[in-house]
Queue: 3 jobs
Job 1
Amino acid sequence: MTVGVLVMAHGTPSSPAGIEPFYTRIRRGRPPDAAQLAELEARYRAIGGVSPLAERTAAQVDALRRALEARAHGRFTVAFGAKHAEPLIEEAAESLAAASPERVIGLVLTPHGSSMGSQEYLDRAAAALEPLGARLVPVAPWYAATALVDLLAARVREACAGVSGRAMVLFTAHSLPARVREAGDTYPDQVAESARLVAAAAGADRWGVAWQSAGRTPEPWLGPDVRDEVRRLAAAGGIDAVVVCPVGFVADHLEVLYDLDVELAGVAAASGLAYARTASLNDDPTFVRVLADLVVAADSGG
C-alpha cells in the first residue's frame, strides 16, 4: 500500500483580483473595508503585484515529490492543501484518502508548532480524513533538525559577510496574540530555541529574537515588534547593521518581501543602520532533503 503525504501551507492570492476574497476568507467572512483593501493592494504592488508564495510552495512540493520518489519508488503519494486558498486542505486530504493509503503523513511548511498555527492545519486534515477511514500521522515541529539549523546558519554567515561593521542578527517569526503564551503554548519558546541553535551554529555573538507581521487587533501580540527593536538598537548604539533571519518562514512571501525588505529596511535606513536579510529557503535542495527526511522518519515511526 502507498503512504499519502499531505503538505500544507498558508496559501496566497493568485492574482490581484483574488486579494479581496482571500482576505475575506482570512477574516472569517468579514470583507476588508476600502481603506484596508487599498493598503493590502499597495503592499502587493510593492512586491510586483502578487506574492510569489504559490509558485514557491508549488516548487517545494514538486521537489519533495521527486525526492521521495527517488528514495522509495511508488511508496509516497504527495498532495498539497492550503489553509486559505485552493486547493484547500480538505480537498487535498480527500484526494489522498481516495487511494486508501496505509496512513497520511501531515507536514506543515512551518518549522514551529502552535495551537494557533500549525495545529489548526493538522486538525483540519485529521477531521477531513477521519470519516474517510484514513489516519493522519502528524510531523512534529522540526525547527531543531540539524540539517535545517546548519543551512540557516550558513545563510546567516553569508548575510553578515555582506554588511560592514558590527552587525546584530535578529531572528524573526510571525507574531501571535500574547494569550498563546498565557495558555501554555510553547511556540514562543520554540522560536527562541530555534534562534539559539542557529546563532550558535553560525558563530553569531550578537543576536536576539523579535516578532513581525502582528495582526491589527486590540489585544496584545507577542513582542518586541522587530521595527521597534531596530529603532531601540539604533538608539542604544554599538552596532552598524541589522541582519534579519526570518527563522519562522520557509519561502518568499508578503511577510518577507514587504514586511522585512520594504518596511523594515526603511526603518533601518531611517535609523542609520545597514540592513540585510538571509535568503529564503524556497526549494533549495538541502531544504528539500530536510523535508524528505521528516516524511521518511514519520513513515518509519507511523
Job 2
Amino acid sequence: MPRMTIKHLLDLKGQRKLALTTAFDTDAARACELGGIDVIVTWPQHNETMEELRFVLEQVREGAPNTLIGAGIPRYEAFVSETDAVRCAWQAIKAGADMIYSSGMEHSKFKALARERIPFVGHVGYIPAHNTWFGGPRAVGKSYDEAMQVYEDTLDFQEMGAVAVEMECVPARVAAEITRRVSLLVLSMGSGADCDGQYLFSCDIWGTHDRHYPRHSKKYRDFYTEAIAAMREYKEDVVSGAFPAEAHTIRIRAEEFERWRAGLDACR
C-alpha cells in the first residue's frame, strides 16, 4: 500500500475514523501495518534517551514502512530548551518518525517545533505525566471549568499548528463538541466515539498482560493466557519427549556420520 503522509491524515477528518495504536518492535509494527492501522505511536521503553528512541524507531519503521509513525521524544533531553526540542525532533524524524507525539511537553517547546514545520501531536484532558496534579488517574472535563480548560488547551494546540491532539479521559459529549469546533484531528483515548479517531495501546488490544485494563480499553484477544498455555504445553512435551519430533530434527547421512565417528576415534 502507498505510504500515508500528514496531508493524507488531515484530509481524513470528517471522512472516516482513524485507528491508532502502539508498537515497539519490528514484528508488532508489521502486525499493525498488515492490520491497516493508520498511525503507530512509539517511544523509548527503558532508558528515556534519544539513543534508545532511534533504536526503537528503526525497528518500528522496518516493520511498518508505509504507516505514519508518531515518536515520543524523551523528556529529559527534549524538554530542556526549545533548541533541544527541535534537535531531538529532527533526530526522531531522521530515524523514521513522521511526527512528534509527546505528552506533557511545555507549550513553548511545541511552538519551536511549529516554527520548524515539524508535525506534532498535543495532549489534552488527563495527562499521565502530570498525574500528581490531577490527584491520580481520573476523568477530566466533568465540570464547567475543566471542560473549558480542555477546549482552551485544544485551541492553543490548533493555533500553534498541531496536526492533532490526543484527548484522554474526557466526557464523550464534551469531546464530541470540541471535535466539531476545531480543524485539527481529535484522537480519543477514552473520550467517546465522536472524535476523529481512536487510540488504544496494543498491549490492551492483544491482551498481553495481567495488569489493570483501563475501562476505555477493549481486549480483542487474550494472548497472555494463550502464552501461559503454550509454555505449559511446551514444557510437558520436553519432559515427555514429545518435543523435538522428527520434523524438528536435523539429520546427517549415515555414511557421513560413520566417517566422522571414525575420525573421532582416530583423534584419540
Job 3
Amino acid sequence: MELQSEKAEGQTSVLVLLNASKNLTQEDFTRLIPQGQHMEGWTLEEGDILKVIPGRNLATLEQENYYYLLFSSPLSAFVYQGHATRIARLAAEQTPDSLHTALAPTPGYMVDGIDVYAAIQAYTLTPSTQTLNLRQLKPPMSALVTSIVKNGGYTAILNRPDKMPFEVRLTLEGPQIPLSRIRYIIYESGRDRALGWSGGDEANIKITKYEPKRPETPTSGNEEGASVSWPPAEQQQLSIDMSKSRVSLTGSDTSDVALKRRKAHPVYILGFHTEHAAQSFIRYWHRKPMDWGSKQADPEDDLAPIANAELLW
C-alpha cells in the first residue's frame, strides 16, 4: 500500500539522519517531537512523523547507519529538525564528560523554556560528544528516496507475498546449520517454555530465507520460491549492495571461484503476529548459541552458531 496519495506525496518532506547508531527505534525519534509549539501547520500529533525507515543493504537486509524520517509537510520537517538540533546542543553543553565539568542538570532546570534534564533523558539519537547530522533532503530527490516515500519503505521488505505483521532478521555467526534444524530448535525451545513464539495459535513461527535475485530478474525469493517485483531504483541499489557485499567478503577478488569459496551467510526472516512476540524472541535468542537439547553442538564442529536477531522495521 502506498504511503500517500499522489497529492499528499508531493508535500511529503524527508529528513535523513547520518552517522547514527544502528540500534535506534521509532520511539527514539518520536520522543523528540516538540511539545508546546503553536505554529500553523504543526499539529503536535505523533503522526507528523509519518514513518522512520532505517537504511538497509538490500543484498543482506543488514541495517546501515542512517535513517529516513518522513513528514507530512516541509514545515513539520523543518520544526522537528530545529528542535532536535537544539536538544542535541543542550545535551552536548549540559552533559558532564569528565570529573572537571559541571554536575549534570537536575529535574526542573530550565533553559529558554526547556526542561534540560528531561530533554537530555529523551535524547538518544547520538552520543553527547557527537554532532547531530540531520539533514533535510531537497527536491528533486533521488529515484530510490522517491520510491521509499511513495511506498513507505523498501518494497523488497514490504511487498513480499509472505510478509508477517512483525518480522525479525536472523543470521548465524560461526558454523551454519540447515533451515530445518533452525526450525526444530526454535520449536523445541518454545515447547520447553510452554509458550509458542509466534504470538498466534501456530506451534512454530514462519521462517523464510531471504534470497534477492540479480537486477536482471528482480525478485525477492524465499524457500517457497515466491517473488515480488522491485522498482527500478531498488534494482539499481541491490546491484550496488551486492557489489559491496562481494568486496567485503572477498577483498578485491570478486571472481566466481572466490565467491564460491566464501559465500555470504544466509539471512532468514522470521514472522510474528505481535511486536511483543518478536521482541520476546529477540531478548531470548540474540547473541546466544543456536542449539537445543542434549546435543548442544554440531558434531563436526563442536561449536554452535551464535544467533543475531534484530527487528526488521
